[in-house]
Amino acid sequence: MPRPKKWRKVCRMPRATEFVPIGTEYCSEDAVVMTVDEYEAIRLIEHEGFTQEECAGYMKIARTTVQQIHNSARKKLSVLLVEGKPLLINGGEYRLCDGNEPYCGCGGCHRHRRGQMSTEKGDTFMKIAIPVDEKILETSVCASLGRAPYFLLRDTESGKDEFIVNTAADAQGGAGLKAAQLIVDSGANVMLTVRCGRNAADVLKAAGVKIYKTESTGVKENLAAFQEGKLAEMTQFHAGFHGRR
Length: 245
Fold this sequence. Notes:
This protein is an alpha/beta fold. The chain has 2 domains: about 10-95, Arc Repressor Mutant, subunit A (Orthogonal Bundle); about 110-225, 2-Layer Sandwich (Nucleotidyltransferase, domain 5). About 30% of the residues lie in helices and about 15% in strands. The chain contains 7 helices and 10 strands. The protein has helices at about 35-45, 50-60, 65-85, 110-115, 175-185, 200-205, 220-225; strands spanning about 10, 20, 30-35, 85-90, 95, 125-130, 150-155, 160-165, 190-195, 210-215. A 5-stranded mixed beta sheet has the order 8-7-6-9-10, sandwiched between helices. It has a 3-stranded mixed beta sheet with strand order 2-4-3. A two-stranded parallel ribbon has the order 1-5. A hairpin with a 4-residue loop joins strand 7 (about 150-155) and strand 8. Residues about 110-125 have low confidence and may be disordered.
């Protein structure tokens, strides 16, 4: 009987999952592939200054396993630097932090950094994100989360609206996941959308962002419906798409 997998805890997904050397043509077949758990070991040890023992504690694995993961990641970094190859970050045996630990000392979990803001009715603060086609309120909710040109952010505390450019819209792959990380980085704790991929949903949920399914096409109508408690929390997520659509 095979031994069960020991999942590695990851606090957050990388902000960028593709790196291409300037002056070279992108080719996924030539890319060095670093797993998400390898990225997390590099982030904690090299960027945050953790010891291997501290990294093991946060990733919930043995120190010897951390050493193996870290060595593998460093080897891959040396290959892409010396040979000028592109880098892709995906896959691996990991699970995103669910935000339920009493503290998050690694600085990665946005849910803890935002103070675990609740989104229940009656709370004093919510920041709502919606994928939109145009930078006006009288527009439609974009049917594609990852390829939406913009996101509308509504701060219910101040009553202000802000439009941000979706920098993931032109990504060659993983647009939904990158867009989800952009939403998390914006500080939103509610997402209203037509549909959402599984990977993007995992990123949003790990950061404490609640996802609600829109009922009509209009942005203003959906904002009103949500604040009246008429939108249902999303429970079904599609498998995701590869490449541009």
